[in-house]
Amino acid sequence: MRIDIISVLPELMESPFQTSILKRAVDKGLAEVHFHHLRPFGFGKYRQIDDEPYGGGAGMVMMVEPLDRCISELKAQRNYDEVIYLTPDGETLNQRTANTLSIKNNLIFLCGHYKGIDQRVRELHITKEISIGDYVLTGGELAACVLADSVIRLLPGVLNDEQSALTDSFQDNLLSPPIYTRPAEYKGLKVPDVLLSGNFGKIEEWRHDEAVRITREKRPDLLE
Ligand code: 6GU
Questions:
Q1: How many domains does the chain have?
Q2: Which of 98, 126, 140, 167 could share a disulfide with 122, CB 3.0–4.6 Å?
Q3: Alpha-carbon distance 165 to 29, whole Å?
Q4: 152, 181, 198 — which closes off a domain?
């Protein structure tokens, strides 16, 4: 998979891909992540990329032309499955969307800034708009990292234990059951007997029942 990320602040996104599992995925060639600074596509001496909104109002708007030129240059080089705009008014990211995107080959992520992008960029290029939740960030960069992480970890070979992505919270719309490791008792708090029983049928049954119980308690909306 190849992800091209367009941003006015690519520096903000470097470390997540230089650490731990995402770094290993990149080093193994399972994911390629390319950053594209928008600034060189801007106008004039100051490489202007934003301007005041027509009709007035607070905040600046990312101009259509620098974005169009940047995206068009990428599209001339390869076919993209999706051109995704990270914006608080997009559809909220969930595991289903991450799963769907993880089987694509080439993705563009466009990080929004200021008040957002000129509507015509959406009309020309954007195929999907994604938000990571109902709160406002200073820009789409951290959201782009969240989205990339959620997708890259699903690529075959990225996780050591192939099972672990399948047993994640949310993969079957259930939260995870409680987990324990040694010691079997700590400050009077005991690990449930069933987990020490060695009866794997019973253990799986207990885990599933606990997952349902916890989901009903914390996130009943997931069971609907
Ligand atoms: Cl994708 N961008 C911004 N700026 N804020 C957000 C978001 C995205 N998702 C949630 N809040």
A1: 2
A2: 126
A3: 19
A4: 152
For the entire predicted model, the pTM comes to: 0.95
CA–centroid distance, 110 to ligand 1, in Å, is 12
Domain interval for residue 209: 172-223
Q: What are the tokens at 200?
A: 């794997």
- The answer to whether the beta carbons of residues 196 and 184 sit under 8 Å apart is yes
Residues 41 and 133 in one domain: yes
| CA 149 to each of CA 32, 39, 48, 142, 181: distance values in angstroms, whole numbers, following the listed order | 12, 25, 31, 11, 27
Between the alpha carbon of residue 85 and those of residues 50, 127, 171, 218, the distances in Å are 16, 8, 24, 30
DSSP annotation of 6 reads E
What are the pLDDT digits (tens) for 53-111?
999 999 999 999 999 999 999 999 999 999 999 999 999 999 999 999 999 999 999 99
Whether residues 124 and 217 fall in one domain: no
Tell me the CA–centroid distance for residue 45 and ligand 1, in Å: 30
Distance CA 134, CA 18 (A): 28
